[in-house]
Design goal:
Structural class of chain B: alpha+beta
Structural class of chain A: alpha+beta
Strand order of the largest sheet of chain B: 1-4-5-8
CATH class of the largest domain in chain B: Mainly Alpha
Number of helices of chain B: 12
Oligomer: heterodimer
CATH architecture of the largest domain in chain A: Up-down Bundle
Radius of gyration of chain B: 22 Å
CATH topology of the largest domain in chain A: Butyryl-CoA Dehydrogenase, subunit A, domain 3
Strand content of chain B: 5-15%
Number of strands of chain B: 10
Strand content of chain A: 15-25%
CATH class of the largest domain in chain A: Mainly Alpha
Largest sheet of chain B: 4 strands, mixed
Shape of chain B: globular
CATH architecture of the largest domain in chain B: Up-down Bundle
Number of strands of chain A: 9
Largest sheet of chain A: 5 strands, mixed, barrel
């Protein structure tokens, strides 16, 4: 057994750490987060050039990674720097789906950072449950047209295309479609997210689309893509918690009250120790999920749900506890902690929250 | 023992409900219930409305023009105001400074400052915390040095809530640095228009502007603005803490949040079914409701005890009440599912007619969840409250 990352993965992690340190101060993230795009296109391109998008895909489809531990290493490091660029939102899951359905040319452009493809699954009424789309696809004169609504499509603004889940008039199974961003019949409402980014609600009214894969048979592809993205944000949360822990411990070591540093108070020592234990448990959950990412479906999904539940529960706890241990300073925009905490809590609202995954695990 | 409200209590409750129905503007209530910060104008309007009815000073004794309600009436009033979505009565003047002036201020100070709180002449803010003195408030360093008929103040205060609207600030200042820290603090009133005061905003993690830092450079304050005796400020501040017990548990607000959450759980859906039917959500909601029912009775028990003599139980109410309020905000955020990410306060701007992402009254909810992390930090953090309980109740 060997828990150490391989040399290659360590190099990727070091590269991201250097990128964050040299080129990604908090100001870049916050300023870009408030724009319609919600991220910095130049930072995104820089990361693509460093090969970070390629590291999410395996060699067969033009990448140089793609295993569970590649994704986990990459996103843990991105999380440490609170990197906001939409690597998981408009590259990882969509690239995986496009590769599985034979659109390798588009995957290549995603890997090089030239194109971004969003993934629109969520509908009002079903929320985290993406298995039952109401959006309807109809075949008219040999061309597909989609009608319906999707909500909370992250970083949709400025994408080149979007993958949309739908049912068809002839199949209740899930079908996936690719819609060009400039297609007629698609309108968007852009809004800001509380963790500093952008999302859109989309209305489809007879929007022309290309079928990806076979009609009604995309559940498994989508489930596998969801597993990859879920692992990615779990790892991101782990990196965020790592940074939060460092900030909190540093603060306890330096903040003076009652004639000594806060870190000398046993009540606070024990709470910080508890935070450390929980984060270690979260790390193990992510390790398990990374290991089982390419395991048989049931096994994979149990590990993914275990990780997402653990990250959801522990993430909210760590965010709240760290703010409390800091006191007033933790409530300010000026101090970085709050931004880490907001993203950490919001990760519980992506790809199913802790209750959703606890139930899925219990029923599996 | 009789745990029921009396007929008199119930008649009083109806009077309050009728008043709120008639006088509370619906658009203001909508904003309050959606956790949108109340504007200066709306706060002043609501204060004036209550003042006309004689209820603004409901917590004051009759001798000072208060409504002279018993603790149960005060409890009913606060609960119904919160349920209706009334703006919070600003505590800084009416509930924090006023009791100190009544107990320790001169007749001149009482006659001058108390009526001005009621008619809206003054908006008070609080100058307690400093950058180096948070939980350890007694270590404060802002100095006031006697010079002729004035005190000259130098230093910095922080976390000054709504200071941007205020014209007056009451401060704890150091007047003696040679003794034990608590023994060298004085309580003084400062006009914010005085030369040498600089107020700067602090942006909070939710993006809002609610708190400020205040810098004092050679600020001259007439010594007639000193409250009580020099170097007795710590005693006055502690007196205030022990008397600020009604409302500290925020039972009214938590009740309002419970009803809002129950309604939300019927309209929010997961997998096509109302969230209320999700067993994990239902259990979370049940836990909070049980905690709230328990807290209501704990609160009334403490109020009953207070009628017979003061104690440190307000610390208990503060801890339980603040954490419960936070837990309601937490569960409301969870109930929003994927829409919790949407931060769209623009839907409340006048004339907005664009689409909505989350239900309208939830458009600011995640920001509110993060903002409310403050309630277990301010007013003496919950850790400090536990120190007080350990010392004063457990006598450890």
């Amino acid at each position: 057994m060997d828990f150490q990352p391989t040399e290659e993965r360590r190099m990727v992690a070091d590269m991201i750490a250097k990128f964050v340190q040299n080129d990604y101060p908090m100001k870049v993230r916050l300023d870009a987060g408030a724009t319609d795009l919600g991220y910095s296109p130049s930072a995104y391109m820089q990361m693509a050039e460093l090969g970070l998008i390629g590291a999410m895909f395996d060699e067969d489809i033009g990448g140089f990674g793609g295993a569970g531990f590649d994704i986990a290493t990459l996103f843990t490091e991105l999380g440490k720097g609170l990197v906001n660029e939409p690597l998981s939102d408009t590259a990882l899951a969509s690239g995986f789906i496009l590769a599985k359905t034979g659109h390798l040319g588009l995957v290549e452009q995603i890997i090089s950072g030239k194109k971004r493809v969003a993934l629109a699954l969520i509908e009002n009424g079903a929320d985290y449950d993406w298995t039952m789309p109401e959006t309807l696809a109809e075949l008219l004169d040999g061309a597909w047209q989609l009608t319906g609504s999707k909500t909370s499509v992250k970083f949709f603004y400025g994408v080149d295309a979007v993958i949309v889940s739908a049912r068809t008039s002839t199949s209740d199974g899930i079908s996936l479609f690719l819609i060009n961003a400039s297609a007629t019949g698609m309108t968007q409402h852009q809004f800001q997210t509380v963790d500093g980014g952008s999302a859109c609600d989309i209305e489809l009214n007879c929007a022309s689309a290309i079928l990806l894969g076979l009609e009604g048979c995309s559940y498994e592809t989508l489930d596998a893509a969801a597993a990859r993205s879920t692992l990615a944000i779990c790892a991101e949360a782990l990196g965020i918690m790592d940074s939060i822990k460092s900030m909190t411990v540093d603060y306890l070591r330096t903040r003076q009250q009652f004639g000594t540093v806060l870190g000398k108070f046993q009540a606070l020592q024990h709470r910080t120790a508890q935070m450390l234990l929980e984060i270690e448990q979260a790390k193990s959950a992510v390790t398990n999920a990374a290991k089982d990412l390419d395991a048989p479906t049931d096994e994979r999904n149990r590990a993914i749900s275990a990780a997402k539940y653990s990250i959801g529960r522990i993430g909210c706890y760590v965010a709240e506890e760290a703010i409390q241990l800091h006191g007033g300073i933790g409530m300010t925009w000026e101090y970085d902690l709050g931004h880490f905490a907001k993203r950490l809590v919001m990760i519980d609202h992506e790809w199913g929250d802790q209750d959703h995954h606890l139930m899925r695990y219990a029923q599996s | 023992m009789d745990l029921n409200f009396t007929a008199k209590d119930l008649a009083f409750r109806k009077e309050v409900i009728d008043f709120l129905e008639e006088e509370l503007p619906k658009d203001v209530a909508t904003l309050v219930k959606a956790d949108i910060a109340v504007s200066k104008e709306d706060t002043e309007f609501w204060h004036m409305t209550l003042h006309k009815r004689g209820w603004l000073t409901y917590s004051w004794p009759a001798a000072f023009g208060g409504a002279d309600w018993d603790p149960v009436q005060q409890f009913i009033f606060e609960k119904e105001c919160a349920a209706a979505g009334a703006p919070r009565i600003l505590p800084f003047g009416l509930k924090m400074l006023a009791p100190v002036l009544m107990a320790f201020g001169s007749k001149e100070q009482q006659d001058h400052w108390l009526p001005r709180m009621c008619d809206g002449s003054d908006w008070w803010c609080q100058g307690y915390s400093e950058p180096g003195s948070g939980s350890d408030l007694a270590s404060l360093k802002t100095t006031a040095v006697k010079d002729g008929d004035d005190y000259v103040i130098n230093g910095q205060k922080t976390w000054t809530t709504l200071g941007q609207h205020a014209n007056m600030i009451f401060c704890l200042v150091r007047t003696d640095a040679t003794c034990k820290p608590q023994a060298g603090i004085s309580f003084i009133l400062v006009d914010l228009a005085t030369q040498g005061i600089d107020m700067r905003s602090i942006r909070t993690l939710d993006g809002g502007h609610e708190v400020n830092e205040v810098f004092f450079t050679d600020v001259r304050v007439p010594s007639s603005n000193l409250v009580g005796e020099e170097n007795m400020g710590w005693t006055y501040a502690k007196y205030l803490l022990a008397h600020e017990r009604n409302g500290i548990a925020n039972v009214g607000i938590s009740n309002q949040k419970l009803s809002r959450l129950k309604r939300l759980s019927l309209t929010q859906k997961r997998s096509g079914k109302p969230l209320a039917e999700d067993p994990l959500f239902a259990v979370r909601l049940a836990r909070l409701e049980i905690e709230l029912r328990n807290l209501e009775t704990t609160n009334l028990r403490v109020l009953d005890g207070f009628a017979k003599g003061a104690g440190p139980e307000s610390s208990m109410l503060k801890i339980i009440g603040s954490e419960l309020e936070q837990n309601f905000d937490d569960l409301t955020r969870r109930a929003l599912g994927r829409h919790a990410q949407a931060h769209t306060p623009e839907v409340f701007e006048p004339g907005y007619n664009g689409p909505q992402v989350a239900p309208k009254n939830m458009a600011n909810q995640s920001a509110a969840y993060f903002n409310k992390r403050k309630v277990s930090i301010y007013g003496g953090s919950n850790e400090i409250q536990k120190n007080i309980i350990t010392k004063m109740i457990l006598e450890l």
